[in-house]
Design goal:
This protein is of the alpha/beta class. The protein has helices at residues 5-11, 19-30, 34-65, 73-120, 123-128, 131-173, 175-182, 185-221, 224-229, 233-285, 291-332, 393-400, 423-427, 444-448, 457-466, 470-475, 493-507, 523-537, 572-578, 581-589, 595-602, and strands at 354-362, 368-377, 382-387, 408-413, 416-417, 430-433, 511-515, 541-545, 557-562, 565-570. It has 2 domains: 18-332, ABC transporter type 1, transmembrane domain (ABC transporter transmembrane region fold, Up-down Bundle), CATH 1.20.1560; 345-429 and 512-519 and 541-602, Rossmann fold (3-Layer(aba) Sandwich). It contains 21 helices and 10 strands. The protein has a 6-stranded mixed β-sheet, sandwiched between helices. The structure holds adenosine-5'-triphosphate. GO terms for molecular function: ABC-type oligopeptide transporter activity; ATP binding; ATP hydrolysis activity. It comes from Paenibacillus radicis (ex Gao et al. 2016). Residues 38-320 form the ABC transmembrane type-1 domain.
Length: 610
Amino acid sequence: MNMNPSMMQQQRPKSKGSIWAMYKRMFFHVSSRWPLMIAALVCIIAVSLLEFVIPQLTQYTIDHVIPGHKYDALPMIGIGILATAVLLGLFNYWSSLTMASVGQRAILDLRNELYRHLQKLDVGFFDRNRTGDLMSRVTNDVNMLQQLISSGMLSIVTDLFTFVAVAGYMLWVDWRLTLLVLATFPFMIMTTRFFSKKMRFSFKRVQESVSEVSSHLQDTLTSIRLIKSFSSEDYEVRRFADRSEANMNANLGAVKLRAVYEPIIDLLNFIGLAAVLLFGARQTMHEALTLGTIVAFMAYVRLLQNPVKRFSRTMNTIQQSAAAYERIVEILGEEPAVREKEDAVQLPVVRGEVQFRNVSFAYHNGAPVLKQFNLEMRAGEMTALVGSSGAGKSTIAHLLTRFYDPQEGEVTIDGYPLTEVGLKSLRSQMGIVSQEIWLLNGTIRENIAYSNPDAEEADIIAAGKAANAHAFIMDLPDGYDSQIGERGVKLSGGQKQRLSIARALLKNPRLIILDEATSSLDSESERAIQDALARLLAGRTCLIIAHRLSTIRQADRIYVLDKGRVIEEGSHEALLEKQGRYRQLYELQFPQRDETDAKSVTTGQGKPAR
Ligand SMILES: Nc1ncnc2c1ncn2[C@@H]1O[C@H](COP(=O)(O)OP(=O)(O)OP(=O)(O)O)[C@@H](O)[C@H]1O
């Protein structure tokens, strides 16, 4: 079941996505790099102080150098301005560099934290959320924060420092003129507060629309064969265009807000400037101020307004980051439903005795799948599950691997409840060969060794041979180093299956879960797979989800399921004799075969070595 990003938000408690919380978390990520931060701060202070020098030199030139005809002071003033400009450049360069390196490190940490957290979440979480949306959060949303840290954070600190220093100095020079300028600030704060909320909302829409685009890409590019086979390219192009347009509209909405907000701040700045000019001109005419002071004061007003103007632009980045941050904390705030207890027992090597006791289970918001379900698997035996599609067979395998926890009842292995044991110690003893074959982009060797990364080359080849895969692997141009493509697209169905068997063999698990493929293979590869499977199953406890009854005649115990309940149970022969559901299913699959024939098959011939 998929849900869009806004659905994900409705489900969760409202996250504390405030700007302060965002800064606190980002500060936590950079706190260990305090020497670099102090270096950046020193540079910032130096920049702010140096900003004063040029207006001071201007005032000195107008008030003293020009009236006094001090020609010999001019070269020194020129050198002073040049030196200040060079130092300003250097300190700006150092502060940008140090803050960028601190910021990039924080982003790296955050992205890794997010990915680590995603890896901890349970399978149910991934059922409910779209891969494209999650990808967009880890890439696009984290990138948004990158902007905040590398440029936004620096400019806020610089601007704040400059603002306080300049305002303090101006108050000292002429408090009345300064108060005139500062009178416009409450209006700026009100305007900023008004727009910041709207901007955040608008940026959230932008980020969500990006995630819609990303989800669509993920869905369709991974299903390109489906699209081609139904000739639905044009349909998908139209759907993509709709999502792209929604993204464009969301972006335009954000731009519109910014386009209104910035001119309002500029207007307030001009009002402040005009007030200083008019009042200052009067004072100068009354000779209460020197011409140099008023010129220098106008420069200070600019210095004071620069950070305000810059801040109004940074606001954009801050709100964009805050919207992205909200989407990131939504995931970080998500708790895994399947969790390992702190005092979890590390499971010793198991015999493989499994019990399902009164287990009831439903998927998230779904109808009950298992109701008061009981099942027993004996160590070293083969237990098979049969039943109509949707009866709950794969669900039983999911509960055994603890991909999900049941709402009622318990599942135990060798008497240990699964909820009490370490997840790694449980899953490391299980091998899953599923009808949906999970392969990663990479080489054949990497895919086989995924179950045991420390495996020796000889073991990998032995697994390949035991899985009847060695011959086809050696026929490939690069043998075990051949690339198999995304999800193994370069391999046939049967080859993929044999690779997954080789991977399970290399793991050498105590317990095997075989969710049998329904796909019909040609008889040669079917025999190759059956042989490989027989080797995999030999000597282990096995749970087989059978679609073809021919493969489970040799099972020690067969459970027949219907709508999440066991309706029959026993050996193949006993179940055939019952003349119940199993027999019905059997006759459906083998319509020509009579009972005697069926029995003769089950009692010997064709039974794989176990
Ligand atoms: N991840 C999931 N989220 C929600 N519902 C699910 C999920 N997986 C399965 N279901 C539902 O649970 C029920 C049992 O599914 P399950 O896959 O266990 O059946 P099955 O017996 O293995 O079927 P089949 O033989 O077709 O593979 C079905 O109704 C299915 O729609």
